[in-house]
Amino acid sequence: MSEQFQKISDCILNGDDEEITSLIKEALDSGINAKDILNKGLIPAMDIVGPKMESGEMFIPEVLMAADVMKAGLEEIKPLLSEGDISTAGTVVIGTVQGDLHDIGKNLVAMMLEVSGFRVVDIGVDKDINSFLEACEKEKPDVVGLSALLTTTMSAMKETVAAIKDKFKDIKVIVGGAPVSCDFAKSINSDGYSDDAGGAVMLCKSLVK
CA 49 → CA 39, 40, 115, distances in Å? Predict the structure, then answer.
């Protein structure tokens, strides 16, 4: 990684949103194209954030700061990127299952996925099986993420996983939330589970590959 790309990545890891703007402008002025700034400076930083969050080296406030800096960097180069320059890591439909109105964890996962290069379709909270099936039909996602915070909605999660897998054989389904465990995720035939947003990003990347 060149020194300029490294400095841009370091800004994200350090949560420095003011410095990243000037560094990107300097890079553009020196002839580096926006696509390279995205793929060699911005995205590699988020590839570090996910594992650091999962290992406990970074905490949610630091992750949020890194994501905000990533967004600031993206705003600088977006006008210079053509549609083909932004190659998504894949498409993820995400939502909270029926009967559950909690969205903090879901929103964090969605944001982390988005700044890590995924196209994210967030269908919201308290979504029934048909809502997920309709989103799968329309968006053709690689992965569907189901979230729940209440033990009373774990049955809805199980039924939703079964319905998606019955109708869409190629779509991977992952689950998460406070009452969810790895054993529960396996018992309902999901394709994976993570207890934090960084792990969810890594899981999605492994499933899409």
Answer: 15, 15, 11
Name the burial class of residue 14, with classes exposed (0-12), middle (13-18) and buried (19+) by CB atoms within 10 angstroms of its CB: middle
How far is C-alpha 3 from the chain's CA centre? 27
Distance between CA atoms of residues 128 and 142, nearest Å: 20
pLDDT digits (tens, 9 = 90+) for 129-185: 999 999 999 999 999 999 999 999 999 999 999 999 999 999 999 999 989 999 999
pTM reported for the whole predicted model: 0.81
User: Quick one: 137 exposed, middle or buried, by C-beta within 10 A (0-12, 13-18, 19+)?
Assistant: exposed
| Per-residue pLDDT at 1 exceeds 60 | no
Q: What is the dihedral of CA 185, 190, 196, 202, to 10 degrees?
A: 140
Mean local confidence (pLDDT), 97-118: 91
- Cβ-in-10-Å burial (0-12, 13-18, 19+) of 24 comes to buried
